[in-house]
Amino acid sequence: MLDFSILTDHLDMYLEGFKITITASLIALVASLVIGILIAVIRIVPFKPLNALGAAYVEFIRNIPLLIIVFFFFLGLRLDGLMAGTIALSIYTSSFIAEAIRAGILSVPKGQMEAARSSGLSYVQTMRLIILPQAFKIVIPPLGNQFINLVKNSSILSVVAGLDLMYQGDLISSRTFVVFDVYIFVAIFYLLLTIPLSLGVGYLEKRLAKSN
Amino acid sequence: MKKKWLQGLLLSILAVILLAGCGKETSTETEKSENETKDVLAQIKEKDKIVFGVKNDTRLFGLKNPSTGEVEGFDIDIAKALAGEILGDETKVEFKEVTSKTRMPLLNNGDIDVIVATMTITEERKKEVDFTDVYFDAGQSLLVKKGSSIKRIDDLKGKTVIAVKGSTSAVNIREKAPDAKVLEFENYAEAFNALKAGQGDALTTDDSILYGMADEDPSYELVGGTFTEEPYGIAVKKGNTALVEELNKALKAIKDSGKYDEIYAKWIKK
Questions:
Q1: What is the average per-residue pLDDT within B235-253?
Q2: Given an 8 Å threshold on Cβ–Cβ distance, is B194 in contact with A75?
Q3: Would the CB atoms of B19 and A195 count as touching at under 8 Å?
Q4: Which of B54, B52, B63 is nearest to B192 (CA)?
Q5: For A176, which residue in chain B has the nearest alpha carbon?
Q6: How far apart are CA B19 and CA A187, in angstroms?
Q7: What predicted TM-score, i.e. pTM, was given to this entire model?
Q8: Which CATH class is domain B140-223?
Q9: Residue B29 or residue A51, greater confidence
Q10: CATH code that applies to domain B37-137+231-267
């Protein structure tokens, strides 16, 4: 059975890591959502050069490993581990979020835009009043997936001494030579974050479906 | 709606139980394989090959040569010489690349037979594995950029020291310099790059490895001499006394024949 003394003996380390993982995840979550929305808008506005710029950003960022983005900020720009990891995580996740939001907006039937425009609404008004509210509902489940991935991906901080949950797990396991039990407790701490997040997204999805 | 929440709760409890069960199962599995592979020496003789766990990121000891794809270094040559003594042929070896973090689990799983990977003999590790006699005498030291204000270990107060995860030096430095902040990285390459990127003021590990780094980038130097003794040992799975004896015999043989000194002179230039 699980050796709970591992948890109780190193509780301060686990909690310190948990705190950092929560902080990094929350900051990256908000930042990636903001950047993601911005990029999605850039990809959709009726102006070709901007579209291309947005597409280039998404294709470049989402097709390289997260670790390399982290190293860029850590070794290249010389930010500390926590900062480099959080910024890299925000940028990396934002490319996926931008794609999810763009797909959501595009999945609103074309007729909606045409009808709104021909009834006299401007492009921005149509987006704000007709398209985005409908897209929002469609986008919730994929966004939820991205946020869960983000929390798990935050373990990349451990590579640049970001003091997060995984880093603390590495230290505890190298001190005690216990591998499985140490990381099972790490997994449980991650579940404490991801399961409520999952449930929250599911709840929001249900609520919005009802309002249809 | 209430029902859904209950479902979610039950699901998460189930997940936790599953995970816990997972740990239990694996530990019995290792116990089982421990019984099966009790005598590693007999296995080595049977397959006529020794599987060594070696570093691939440690200059002078075990470093992957990118042009050949082969790992080269002091540990590698020692391992070959040992295989030459035990099996009569230096080529009857297989090298698996390990890190400080993975070498013990790999040994205990039976993926490797012997660890020759800059591993310090400590009391704590002796509880987990069996060690041979010392095959290399190292000591922990500090690597800093030339002209740094750090001249000895006492100067570390309030500074950031870089170490490698799972190494004894990470534990030692916390004792010897309690006022320093310690950041730990995955391997020596990352640690050295972090030092170069100014993420810390000094890098600490065994002098033998630091010499390799200073050799690579002469703008860095060792300071303060050594402040610990780090006797490197060759490790085998706990309980394999016959294999330890065989390795000790082989080690003595290559020391007597001058082969050891030859390998030492080839790699270590102080």
A1: 94
A2: yes
A3: no
A4: B63
A5: B124
A6: 9
A7: 0.71
A8: alpha beta
A9: A51
A10: 3.40.190.10
